[in-house]
Amino acid sequence: MIKSLLIANRGEIACRIIRTARAMGIRTVAVYSDADAKALHVRQADEALHIGPSPAIESYLVGEKIIAAAEQTGAEAIHPGYGFLSENAEFAQSVIDAGLVWVGPKPASITAMGLKDAAKKLMDEAGVPVTPGYLGEDQSASVLAEEAAKIGYPVLIKAVAGGGGKGMRLVESEDEFADALQSCQREAASSFGNDHVLIEKYILSPRHIEVQVFGDTHGNVVHLFERDCSLQRRHQKVIEEAPAPGMDEATRETLCAAAVRAAKAVDYVGAGTIEFIADGSEGLRADRIWFMEMNTRLQVEHPVTEEITGVDLVEWQLRVASGEALPLKQEELSIDGWAMEARLYAEDPAAGFLPSVGRLERYAHPQPPIRIETGVEQGDEVSSYYDPMIAKYITHAATRDEAIFKLADYIPFVQIWPVITNSGFLHRLLVDPTFVEGDVTTGFISELPEDAFYGSDPDQSEINLAALNLSIQHGGPIGPFRLNRRPMSRSWMTDRGHLYESNDDPLPSHLDEFTVAVADCDGVYVTTLGRTWRFEPARQYGSGQHSAHDGDILSPMPGKIIAVEVAQGETVNAGQKLLTLEAMKMEHTLTAPFDGVVAELNAEAGGQVQVEALLARIEAGIEEEEG
């Protein structure tokens, strides 16, 4: 058995592998970039080594640095995780050549499945059904257009070296083909260094069904049944489940047998996934499911397979890499219940799903707990350098309805602030009648109405609830008052630099079911359907006293100042716009937290700023007493 393991990855991926390795008594080594110096995976590993600057291309994607780190720390094996170098055949071979154990498939298997056109030809020869299309070497525009016409529109143009939705274009008519082809080839050349494409028939009611396979060095290959990953946004998976809804035993047997043939065709060792595209217009049928591609690595969504089979796939990877045979035979594997996984991202659905980065000042989970795979804790940073996924939430139950209910009942109450997440959007998907019925296609999210993308601003009901909680917390009304006058019922509060005012409207009944309020120091966190705000009393309406830092205007993230609306020494009112910051392709308006004077101004249009840089400081004026 492997005694020491270097994980060539970061975040929740590395934390997941460390957990299993530790349970097996294996010493773990983490690697980290500048941005990850204090990351959770670094804290959890037995040893950690710095490998370079924050950009992945200068750290996690430099194979020589990874191998050097393994040699320096005495690691016996390298696990690539998923993403980064996990499907890089050259890196895998370099690990083996360095005398280290590679926890993954043979480099030749990665190469065989790395190009979509070559993989489809290989699968066709192995008797695995493939989508009708053109895989030819002639890449001239005229031939490609002619083949597309033969296949019949609509068609998909796909980069042969593509992945993650890049280098892919849907073409619905002959008039669109030439422009789509050029666009696809440009993106393919830029992203993968290869502009060759294939053309395949576009399935009108597509479902994404994939089969988990596993092989060892003794010639054994098994499948661990299927997953349904049809709920996608721009070809990126959002919610996954196992098994696939609507899958009958005969279709499952045919599909999984084809997946095993596919793995055997490339002499596969380790964990892999055979991805299929299904025409769901008449339900799942064996004659309407075709091979799409193979992922020669562990998948992000592997926990749902683990939950229904009771297998630890990372443990299997480590045992197989150590030369052991698969722990179970095919007849010993079975499906137990249903599992569901949702990916929580630091992104704002109301702003086109732009990433939201920064420090997790608040990151709390409801009780009782469910399975959570994460690479961050409260106080950690969500970096702009890497994928913005915060966590994966996984439920397991006897039935699909129960698994959905458990997940839908958990995610809305995860509290994260000030980073914005897609948790409200996930809840919206989980309770959608079409999804609950198990009848979604890969185009489902793109067809949703605008109200599926919850905004980031609080409703009046959340504001009123915050005011009520702050009033209780502070022992009475926190609204505006003057000496010798009865306090008014209104309250002024701030969140993310914005000023909010409560009113006397009654709290709506939906708050009882979907809302949680938690007091913290002198503020209160209010979460409704996954959206969280932290409200504090806007102190300028109280005693007129302010702490030394109340008026500090800090940059919420690295970015560029695109507008400055005030000058130093200028008098400003609460809520008045001070400046605008552009970060992560989104504009952020910073406002005055109270009435006062701009005592300090450190921002100018066009200037670049770092996170938490002091951009301005507002000092309160002396409040006049009424006579």
How is the secondary structure organized here?
Blueprint: E1 4-7, H1 11-23, E2 27-33, H2 40-44, E3 47-52, H3 63-73, E4 77-79, H4 89-97, E5 101-102, H5 107-114, H6 116-125, E6 133-134, H7 141-151, E7 155-163, E8 166-171, H8 174-192, E9 197-201, E10 206-215, E11 221-233, E12 236-242, H9 249-265, E13 270-279, E14 289-295, H10 302-309, H11 313-321, E15 338-345, E16 347-348, E17 354-355, E18 358-359, E19 362-364, E20 371-374, E21 381-382, E22 389-397, H12 400-408, E23 415-417, H13 423-430, H14 433-436, H15 460-473, E24 492-495, E25 498-501, H16 510-514, E26 515-520, E27 523-528, E28 531-537, E29 552-554, E30 559-564, E31 571-572, E32 577-583, E33 586-591, E34 596-601, E35 608-609, E36 614-619
Parallel strand pairs: 1-2, 1-4, 2-3, 4-5
Antiparallel strand pairs: 6-9, 7-8, 7-9, 10-11, 10-13, 11-12, 12-15, 13-14, 15-22, 16-17, 18-21, 19-23, 20-22, 24-25, 24-28, 26-27, 27-28, 29-36, 30-32, 30-35, 31-34, 32-33, 34-36
Helix pairs in contact: 4-5, 7-8
TL;DR?
This protein is α+β, with helices and mostly antiparallel strands and 627 residues long. Helices cover 26% and strands 30% of the residues.
Explain how this protein is built:
It is a single chain. The protein is an alpha+beta fold and 627 residues long. It folds into 6 domains: 4-103, Rossmann fold (3-Layer(aba) Sandwich), CATH 3.40.50.20; 106-131 and 206-336, D-amino Acid Aminotransferase, Chain A, domain 1 (2-Layer Sandwich), CATH 3.30.470; 132-201, ATP-grasp fold, A domain (Dna Ligase, domain 1); 341-446, 2-Layer Sandwich (D-amino Acid Aminotransferase, Chain A, domain 1); 457-543; 550-627, OB fold (Dihydrolipoamide Acetyltransferase, E2P). Helices cover 26% and strands 30% of the residues. It has 16 helices and 36 strands. It has an 8-stranded antiparallel β-sheet with strand order 14-13-10-11-12-15-22-20. Helix 4 (89-97) runs antiparallel to helix 5 and helix 7 crosses helix 8. It is globular.
